[in-house]
Design brief:
The chain has 2 helices and 9 strands. By secondary structure, the protein is mainly beta. The chain has one domain.
Length: 202
């Protein structure tokens, strides 16, 4: 992870949210729809930048089964569309070490879909056929996404909490903390050295 071009590429990856393709993790939604950040991408460090945004819009793959989540969560693709208050902040120092955080709080609608298309990087590129048995859920969402990179280590982590209901009166509540870390000597373009995703529904 040495050199400006590597760190700039890593910053772009973090901004794109592609390091954490987790189904109920709408931190990727925040990262994808917030304004582009020049710091760490087209502008090398040292630099600091903060931007504000008000919308999220993302598509995600089905979640792994378990965690007390309803069956549709592990079979359906989903869109996450929301409005609220979001802030992104990035700092890159003279050594090209990078720190990045995103927070968002607001209202979000989760719509389950029966089918989706995924590219070679695991990103959902399209969804089709809303699930006729599961109306969209609308409710409150709070989320946080952060990452840090230096010459020895890399860490990406996020937390999202959602509580909502649908037109049938069904409720969906989930909490999803996730974490990935790369220790010295590992390739940040490869699998993390340590990783967990603890999605829980109630």
């Amino acid at each position: 992870m040495r050199g400006n071009s590597t760190r700039a590429a890593l910053a772009a990856v973090v901004v794109a949210g592609s390091l954490m393709p987790i189904a109920f993790d709408s931190a990727t939604a925040v990262a994808d729809t917030a304004p582009d950040l020049a710091c760490g991408s087209t502008q090398p460090g040292p630099c600091t930048q903060t931007v504000h945004f008000s919308e999220i819009n993302e598509m995600n793959t089905p979640a792994p089964p378990g965690g007390g989540c309803p069956a549709f969560a592990s079979t359906d693709f989903a869109t996450f569309v929301g409005t609220g208050n979001g802030v992104e902040h990035i700092t890159v120092n003279r050594a090209q070490d990078l720190w990045f955080t995103t927070t968002f709080a607001g209202t979000m609608t989760i719509t389950p879909y029966l089918h989706g298309t995924v590219d070679s990087d695991g990103n959902v590129t399209s969804v089709s056929d809303p699930d006729p048995n599961v109306p969209p859920f609308t409710g409150k969402v709070t989320e946080w996404f952060g990452a840090s990179f230096n010459q020895q280590n890399a860490v990406v982590h996020s937390t999202i909490h959602f509580t909502g209901t649908n037109a049938n009166g069904e409720s969906l509540r989930f909490h999803d903390p996730s974490h990935s870390a790369w220790t010295p000597g590992t390739d940040v373009n490869g699998p993390p050295t340590k990783m967990f995703d603890k999605l829980r529904c109630s």
